[in-house]
Structure formats: C-alpha cells, structure tokens
C-alpha cells in the first residue's frame, strides 16, 4: 500500500474501490456530475483542500475533464495536484460495453498506470507507513455511540450538522470526511468541547 498525504478526489465508487486497494489515503467521490449541484460535497472537498491539499484524479474522457474544471473553479489552484490518467482505449470488466468515448477510466487502468500518473504529476508517494496523524476508526465511532446503539443515527446527523458536513453522507462517508479534515485527536477534542456546552 502506498501512502499519500493528500486527499484524492475521484468520480465514482468504483474508482474509489480501485484506489483503496493501492493508496493509503482518504478518497472522496464527486458522484459524477452530481458535484455540480451538491454544494455540501463541494464544500467538503474545498475544506479537504484547505486542510492538506487534494489530488484530482478523474477519467480522461470529456466528463472527467468537466468535473476537473468545475473543481478547479472553486478551489485555489495551489491546493490542487492534477493527476491525469492517459487515454487508453478499452472497456471496464464490470461494464457490458465501452464508454461513449471508448476510454478506460480510473477503475479500468492498471495499478502501474495509476502509479506512473501520480509520479508524473509530482505526487510524493511513499511505500513506507508514514508517521502520520492517527485516524478515527469505526471502533471509535462505536465507542462514541455513533454506530451500533439506539440513537446512533441521530448522533451522526447532529455531528454532520455540527461539522457542517453533507447530511446525506453514509457512515463510511462520514468517517472518510472526518479523517480528511481532522486528526483523531482534533476530532475527539471537538466532541469533548461539545459535551462541555
């Protein structure tokens, strides 16, 4: 697993699944063109960019470039690293037919193609486990009553509102967002302060 210290932005869940098997970092999806209307998701990505910078890795087709351009228009340029997947003709295994432009997306290219694209963009990739900030886990969520108990859903909804995160985030999405924005210590401190009110 390769460590990257920036949050990676991809188009969809299959791109995220592919990268999750290669990279040790937080990965946020744009849910395709939904990002154009989803102000809360756009704000989450903007906050992740302010926190530690982002890597935009969209498909090499015209849809991927539209999404990339949208993100570049709302996020400061110095907070973005653009990683471009080369145009490779083909069809993803899970699809019955090739995309409209006949190009493989992030999910369809090999790990080596992804690694080469990251290195070409100047992304600092480390095979060592970096001395990084400790992440919040699902076990922490359980211990905090955010999953697995009566009222967990309400607690998660209140937490999303408090942290100004998209209200439609799943539990896994909430965990990804928290880890993209806060160290475990910072997150627990926020909860401690909230309890003291």
Pick out its properties.
197 residues; alpha/beta; 4-stranded parallel sheet; two-stranded parallel sheet; 8 helices; 9% strand
Structure, explained:
With about 200 residues, this protein is an alpha/beta fold. Helix content is about 45%, strand content about 10%. The chain has helices spanning about 15-20, 40-50, 60-75, 110-120, 140-145, 150-160, 170-180, 185-195, and strands at about 1-5, 5-10, 25, 25-30, 55, 80. The strands form two sheets. It has a four-stranded parallel sheet with strand order 4-2-5-6, with helices on both faces. The protein has a two-stranded parallel ribbon with strand order 1-3. The longest helix has 14 residues, at about 40-50. The N and C termini lie far apart (about 40 Å). About 30% of the residues are buried. The mean pLDDT is about 90.
Architecture blueprint of SSEs:
Elements (H helix, E strand, L loop, with lengths): L1 E2 L3 E4 L2 H8 L2 E2 L2 E3 L9 H14 L1 E3 L5 H13 L5 E3 L28 H10 L17 H6 L8 H11 L8 H11 L2 H13 L1
Parallel strand pairs: 1-3, 2-4, 2-5, 5-6
**What fraction, in percent, of the residue positions are helical?**
40-55%
Number of strands: 6
Shape: globular
Distance between the termini: 41 Å
Label the structural class.
alpha/beta
Query: Measured on Cα atoms, how large is the radius of gyration?
Result: 17 Å
**Percent of residues in beta strands?**
5-15%
Low-confidence stretches: none
Q: Biggest β-sheet: count, sense, barrel?
A: 4 strands, parallel
Count of separate DSSP helical elements: 8
SSE string: EEHEEHEHEHHHHH
Give the averaged pLDDT, no decimals. Answer: 90
Q: Kindly report the spatial arrangement of strands forming the biggest sheet.
A: 4-2-5-6
